[in-house]
């Protein structure tokens, strides 16, 4: 493990997703401890997108933005909201120059699949229909997210393809949760890795699926056909249970004719890019922003 990251491991609160209410509070406290992002070069506005139900979004609009990304936060489908994602959404907007539409989707277990995906699709449709109001191009809309949010972004791309919905230009998938089956080497063997491990992943999927069978729109790795999906950037962490399913998904995308950039970060663990004092974390965040900037400008 990268020594700059290893020093922070003892500071993480216990989070096994058995008590969502308490763990949401702890997650919010962790996010609140992150240094405030610089939002002086952008406009930040909260909106309520009409739907069934309505969906809260927070829009980060840099000056002279050309494209946009519908961004889904992490938190195992159970934790996170617009406020916990604020440090990362604002940094992504500042570094990429893209309009970031951060989505406050409904959380499991109170709202199992497909609630979060429905909310994400509502936000995507709104972004496409209001591109002019957002100061962006309707043909330059990406989807992206971290962890559970990365899995939601991949599922959003699948749903948009299958429903012939809004055109998506790019997928930005950071350590996404893609497969509920947990059959890969990393899922079976990473039992005590920091922040995310085998049991926590299993709990996350139990909450999200709510006892129902998984479908490809819930667990994108189950999709039989990946042709026709947008180009993707897939980032993985070496000591992350999701690592191998993410690499396998990237390979399947490539074999389906989808352009993919795959970046495996050595010495890192799930979510460690949030430790902003570490050099590798700074490089991870910079790469995510650069990939998005290239995709929306090209």
TrEMBL record:
InterPro entries: AB_hydrolase_3, AB_hydrolase_fold, GDXG_lipolytic_enzyme. The keyword Hydrolase applies. The keyword RNA-binding does not apply. Keywords: Hydrolase. Gene3D superfamilies: alpha/beta hydrolase. SUPFAM superfamilies: alpha/beta-Hydrolases. Residues 69-272 form the Alpha/beta hydrolase fold-3 domain. One of its GO terms (molecular function) is hydrolase activity. It holds the Pfam family Abhydrolase_3. PANTHER family: AB HYDROLASE SUPERFAMILY PROTEIN C4A8.06C, ALPHA_BETA HYDROLASE FOLD-3 DOMAIN-CONTAINING PROTEIN-RELATED. This is Alpha/beta hydrolase. It comes from Streptomyces dubilierae.
């Amino acid at each position: 493990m990268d020594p700059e990251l290893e020093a922070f491991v003892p500071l993480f609160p216990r989070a096994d997703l058995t008590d969502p209410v308490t763990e949401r509070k702890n997650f919010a406290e962790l996010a609140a401890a992150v240094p405030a992002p610089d939002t002086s070069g952008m406009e930040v506005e909260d909106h309520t997108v009409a739907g069934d139900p309505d969906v809260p979004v927070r829009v980060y609009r840099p000056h002279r933005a050309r494209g946009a990304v519908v961004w889904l936060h992490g938190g195992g489908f159970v934790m996170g909201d617009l406020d916990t994602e604020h440090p990362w959404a604002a940094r992504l907007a500042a570094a990429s120059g893209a309009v970031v539409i951060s989505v406050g989707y409904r959380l499991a277990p109170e709202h199992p699949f497909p609630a979060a995906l429905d909310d994400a699709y509502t936000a995507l449709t709104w972004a496409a229909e209001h591109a002019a109001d957002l100061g962006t191009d309707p043909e330059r809309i990406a989807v992206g997210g971290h962890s559970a949010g990365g899995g939601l972004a991949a599922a959003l791309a699948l749903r948009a393809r299958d429903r012939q919905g809004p055109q998506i230009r790019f997928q930005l998938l950071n350590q996404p949760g893609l497969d509920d089956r947990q059959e890969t080497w990393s899922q079976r063997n990473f039992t005590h890795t920091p922040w995310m491990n085998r049991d926590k992943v299993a709990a996350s999927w139990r909450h999200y699926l709510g006892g129902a069978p998984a479908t490809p729109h819930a667990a994108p790795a189950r999709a039989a056909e990946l042709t026709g999906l947008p180009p993707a950037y897939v980032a993985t962490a070496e000591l992350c249970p999701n690592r191998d399913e993410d690499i396998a998904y990237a390979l399947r995308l490539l074999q389906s004719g989808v352009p993919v950039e795959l970046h495996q970060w050595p010495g890192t663990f799930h979510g460690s890019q949030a430790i902003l004092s570490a050099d590798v974390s700074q490089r991870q965040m910079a790469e995510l922003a650069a990939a998005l900037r290239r995709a929306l400008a090209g």
